[in-house]
Design a protein that fits this description.
Elements lengths: L5 H5 L15 E3 L10 H11 L12 H11 L6 E4 L2 H12 L5 E6 L4 H9 L2 E6 L8 H10 L2 E5 L11 H5 L7 E5 L11 H5 L7 E6 L12 E5 L1 H8 L9 H11 L2 H24 L3 E2 L6 E5 L5 H10 L2 E9 L8 E8 L3 H14 L1
Parallel strand pairs: 1-11, 3-4, 3-5, 5-6, 6-7
Antiparallel strand pairs: 2-8, 7-8, 9-10, 10-12, 11-12
The structure holds 4'-deoxy-4'-aminopyridoxal-5'-phosphate.
The site of 4'-deoxy-4'-aminopyridoxal-5'-phosphate (PMP) has 12 residues, from helix 4.
Length: 358
Amino acid sequence: MSLFRPEIDRIAGYAPGEQPQEAGWVKLNTNENPYPPSPRVVAAIEQAARGRLNVYPDPLATQLRRKAAEAYGVGPEWILPANGSDECLTILLRSFVGPGELVAYPYPSYVLYETLAEIQGGSHARLPLNADWSWDHARCEPIVRRSKLALVPNPNSPSGNRWSDDEVAALVPPHGVLVIDEAYAEFGDEAAGPRLLHSALGGRFVVTRTLSKSYSLAGVRMGFALAHPDLIAGMRKVKDSYNCDTLSIAAALAALDDPAWMLQNREKIRATRARLSQSLRDLGFHVVDSRANFVWATRPQGGHRGIYEALKARKILVRYMRYPDVANAPGGAIDGLRITVGADAEIDALLAALREIG
Ligand code: PMP
């Protein structure tokens, strides 16, 4: 007899990308930034480590919220810092989804949404996308109408495409909340989220952001939920008291204090993204126009898993993704390679290996 709740017994659990702990890998599988964070971050962590680690951090991370408010163009009372934007998603599910209430998200997109909905005991529904990653509005609309929470990553993963503000704003459930997951927003040209928060429907949006990708801080764990203060006040009741630790808060403050460093790395990544996309197309891959720090590459003849394995044998890790139950896909499933835009030398190694594998 299992001691677990039936919801937990039923699910396999979310499987994060592989994180080999030994050196020597070209790691292009979990959308980390190949460049280190600002030197100010390291100095701030060192200074904080010499400070008062015996006392709890500020539960509301007041100083950090002020700094993040400047960065994201909203007031500090509109911000909830968390242990990565993944924790924001957990808080959102726990705040808004009761037993049996519907959670909707585009499919294919971030697989964690489904797992979180299952853990929460909500019901869930996939919003179908067309083969070119555009919205199938006619089929989505009735699902959104019944949803308590809709979650939309923009740019999307694994595809890297970005939907327009109007298209995303149209997905607000009439009796619920729309979460716009902007984990990769800085790699595009614009981000709708903070602007939408001040629109007529602003009280129904939550935008999530992270320092993991653009600010090179995946190892520190810091994300933010941005929303109307009434929503933030409710979500605070759900979060752990001290969900952000002293060292993470110090690191995040320093990172946000050096946007020039982030922007310089972002420009390098965008230039490498253009070169990677073109080179993959030259090798016969179809590559979606990406606004993120990864690209989605597929070949008409398939064989993606084999390529992933052949790359892995050469110590190059990319993410092989397979999404079953896609109604409009040949064979009922789509699969492909999600490749993080690494440093130029890493991308050179990847392209050389792909030419060899053929
Ligand atoms: N949203 C999306 C779409 C992601 O791909 C990721 C990274 N796996 C996250 C959120 C979470 O990132 P983090 O918890 O590091 O902020």
